[in-house]
Amino acid sequence: MAVIELQDVSKLYGFGDATTLALDEVSLKIEKGEFVAVMGPSGCGKSTLMNLIGLLDRPTHGTYSLNGRRVDRLRSNQAAKLRRDTLGFIFQSFNLLPRLTVLENVALPLSYTGMGTVKRQKIASNILERVGMQNREYFLPGQLSGGQVQCAAIARALVNNPSLLVADEPTGNLDSNGSLLVMELLSELHKVGNTIIFVTHNPELTRYATRVIYMHDGAIIQDEQTEIGKVAKTARKQMYNVSRSSEEDDLAGVSTLMKALPSKPSVRTKAKSRKRASSKKPKATQKRAKS
Ligand SMILES: Nc1ncnc2c1ncn2[C@@H]1O[C@H](COP(=O)(O)OP(=O)(O)O)[C@@H](O)[C@H]1O
Ligand SMILES: [Mg+2]
Q1: Is residue 116 lining ligand 1, measured as CB closer than 6 Å?
Q2: 16 Cβ partners below 8 Å, 6+ apart?
Q3: What's the CATH architecture for 4-241?
Q4: What is the CA(218)–ligand 1 centre distance, in A?
Q5: pLDDT at position 265, please?
Q6: Which end of the chain is more exposed for a tag (fewer CB within 10 A), N or C?
Q7: CA 63 to CA 74: how far, in whole Å?
């Protein structure tokens, strides 16, 4: 049984002359254990799709089944309950409440369970340990790096043991170290069986995914199975604006982000990727400044 099954899902915003067709008959099936990257230009409907999948919004037309159960016509309180029980959601920013400690933030979703504070905090503490944040429990979000804030947000998303993690540009506001921290964490969670769908503008991050979905004007225009560790083909075209396919090119395309990975490529490759990466630097900075 698929975790997610969307059939001809459309989403219209607004009324009369001012309507926007944000999703145009999207069909999509995601199986347990997939690690799906969603890419596409601004305004193409990525967030709308994440919000529908995350039960934060309802489709105008079409059907949505989550773990085999129809959920496209749920009332808002039913949707809220199901969201709490089955989904973990991570946004680009504003993920944590600034006046609560990291531990309190992570324990927050458990407050509806009627569980006592001590027990809730114990569970939260275990999860923070799992994401490598055990020594930040009593920090306030403002005292963390952007990457650490997102790791805490991921911990909070995990606290109800969700069947799906939905992340809308989780690395959108992060520098390359922060992005690496977050993606490595998502990757670990994927390895232990979690199903993850995330939005990204960075073709490099498709290296983590098993599948990449490309959207345009509210539609899925391509759906590519991809090997972990490699930039997906279409994303690579977008990076260089030409199609390259050799292993050599792949390695040469290693960005500042991947350079920080503790892998040990051959000396020759290392020298080459360093050279390429440094010549690319101004471009990378520009891109970050824009987003
Ligand atoms: N709440 C809303 N009301 C009206 N239009 C919206 C709303 N949310 C998104 N849109 C429109 O729907 C389209 C898709 O938006 P969005 O899903 O946010 O795209 P993306 O995340 O890919 O940038 C855009 O044209 C956007 O302006
Ligand atoms: Mg968006």
Answers
A1: no
A2: none
A3: 3-Layer(aba) Sandwich (3.40)
A4: 9
A5: 44
A6: N
A7: 11
What residue's CA is closest to ligand 1, atom 6?
13
User: Where do the structural domains in the chain lie, given as residue ranges?
Assistant: 4-241, 246-291
Q: Would you state the pLDDT for residue 92?
A: 86
What pLDDT score does 111 carry?
86
Q: Is the CB of 14 under 6 A from ligand 1?
A: yes
Structure tokens at 187: 């990757």
Give pLDDT, residue 160. Answer: 86
Q: List, run by run, the mean pLDDT of 10-residue segments along the chain (291 residues).
A: 96 91 97 97 96 95 96 93 91 89 94 88 93 94 93 92 92 90 92 94 95 97 94 84 51 45 43 42 42 39
pLDDT given for residue 93 in this prediction = 83
Position in ligand 1 atom list of the atom nearest CA 45: 17
Block residue for tokens 């979905």 = 213
Instruction: Identify the bridge partners of residue 90 per DSSP, sorted by sequence position.
Output: 167
Query: Which pLDDT score is estimated for 269?
Result: 40
Q: Is 254 left (phi over 0), alpha (psi -120 to 50) or beta?
A: beta
